[in-house]
Amino acid sequence: MLIEEVYKNALVVSSGCKLTTVNEFTDQLPALRPEVLIEVAYGMIKKIDCDFDKVVTEEDKGAPIATAISMLTGRPLAMARWYPYRINNINNNIVKINSEYFDGEMYLNGINEGDRVIIVDDTLSTGGAVVSLIKAIESAGGIVSKVICAVEKIQNNGRKNVRDKTGHDVITLLKKSLSAESVTVME
């Protein structure tokens, strides 16, 4: 798989308190090849075994893969933003987020009561972004049908954190572990 190659060749850096990678898939360094994005999108779509009305992600690193899945499945894309822009109180769906990279508020757009959604993200690390997305969707009256992330950084316990805080399981395509020197891709 190309995504394995991307992570085996990724640069490991410190994001302050945690190790992270700089790579083609999440950081577009080098620029993201369409064949990597397509491979990951189709791999994720194969794991979606439920009915859904919308694809939901956050506007940062999850946006490219969620956009591809939206286009390939023909389902609308709803996006959580890191900043507010209230227009006649249209965007009142605000949740706190505490993730590996960001603490603050997230503003979810485009979810209505009864919408069945899948959450798509690039990486599951601590689970903070996914937990916040689930809370935002459910507070809007939406139904989380599936949570799927392309990559799981196993040492940060994100899968367990999401399950413990929301009751939802997360499906991933690839698991990785980081050391200061390298990325280990797990089967």
Secondary structure topology:
Layout (H helix, E strand, L loop, with lengths): L1 H7 L2 E4 L4 E4 L1 H4 L6 H13 L7 E5 L4 H11 L3 E5 L12 E5 L4 E6 L7 E9 L3 H12 L3 E11 L4 H9 L4 E8 L4 E4 L1
Parallel strand pairs: 3-4, 3-7, 7-8, 8-9
Antiparallel strand pairs: 1-2, 4-6, 5-6, 9-10
Helix pairs in contact: 3-4, 5-6
Keywords:
single chain, 187 residues, alpha/beta, Rossmann fold, eight-stranded mixed β-sheet, two-stranded antiparallel sheet, 10 strands, 33% strand, globular
CATH architecture: 3-Layer(aba) Sandwich
Envelope shape:
globular
- Sequence of secondary-structure elements: HEEHHEHEEEEHEHEE
Kindly state the mean pLDDT as a whole number? 91
> Strand-residue fraction?
25-35%
Distinct helical segment count? 6
Helix amount: 25-40%
As for the number of domains, it is: 1
Computed structural class: alpha/beta
Unreliable segments of 5+ consecutive residues:
none
Q: Under CATH, the topology is which?
A: Rossmann fold
Number of strands: 10
Strand order of the largest sheet: 5-6-4-3-7-8-9-10
Under CATH at level 1, the class stands as: Alpha Beta
Radius of gyration, in Å, reads 16 Å
Q: What does the main sheet amount to?
A: 8 strands, mixed
Q: What is the terminal separation in angstroms?
A: 12 Å
Short description:
By secondary structure, the chain is α/β, with parallel strands linked by helices. It has 6 helices and 10 strands, in the order H-E-E-H-H-E-H-E-E-E-E-H-E-H-E-E. The chain is globular, with a radius of gyration of 16 Å.
